[in-house]
Design goal:
Blueprint lengths: L1 H8 L3 H17 L3 H13 L6 H11 L32 H14 L3 H17 L3 H17 L3 H14 L3 H15 L1
Helix pairs in contact: 1-2, 2-3, 2-5, 5-6, 5-7, 6-7, 7-8, 7-9, 8-9
């Protein structure tokens, strides 16, 4: 369903790829390794890759929204206290929201280098767009990457930053479990 929606309604290759990866992981979990490998190979052959041109293009679209007081180097980020209660409509799907799901799926498949590239872009975009929840999720994923790279101190710092920005209870729970796993 998500595959069809991503392909026909949104015409978005990223959403279609997320759907294919999730389906392949489901098949693998059900013990259908051959079917899963075939689907994964199909994804590998024409998967979405983040290009430098796309990074520049998407950054150009949002750089006018960047807070002039935010030098993008300080760890502290000022987010608005109360989100405006806007109705969720189809056109409000932002590219960084898709990228974070794509990065999560890539992490589950062991595609750490590609996932890190997406996560870093999500981190920048969510910071500029003042998307506190996605920013905290990107910090948690950066923590995972840092841990996998052998940088446990950096991983713990990212987790602590994540805790200071997280708002959604589901993400709070994931962040606590993530920090616990790091410390064990």
């Amino acid at each position: 369903m998500l595959n069809l929606f991503g392909k026909l309604v949104l015409e978005d290759k990223k959403i279609e790829d997320i759907s294919i990866l999730r389906k392949a992981r489901l098949l693998m979990n059900l013990g259908l390794k051959t079917e899963s490998d075939n689907l994964k190979q199909q994804w590998e052959n024409n998967s979405y890759k983040l290009t430098d041109d796309e990074k520049k293009f998407n950054f150009e679209k949002i750089k006018g929204l960047k807070d002039p007081k935010d030098n993008m180097k300080d760890k502290a980020v000022a987010f608005p206290y109360e989100d405006e209660k806007e109705p969720l409509v189809l056109e409000q799907v932002k590219v960084h929201e898709v990228w974070i799901h794509y990065a999560e799926e890539l992490l589950k498949w062991g595609e750490f280098v590609r996932a890190k590239e997406f996560i870093l872009e999500v981190n920048i975009h969510s910071r500029i767009l003042k998307d506190q929840e996605i920013y905290s999720q990107s910090l948690m994923l950066l923590s995972t990457i840092a841990y996998l790279e052998g940088e446990s101190a950096t991983a713990l710092r990212c987790d602590m930053l994540c805790h200071s920005y997280v708002k959604n209870m589901e993400t709070v729970e994931k962040a606590i479990e993530h920090t616990f796993d790091l410390l064990m």
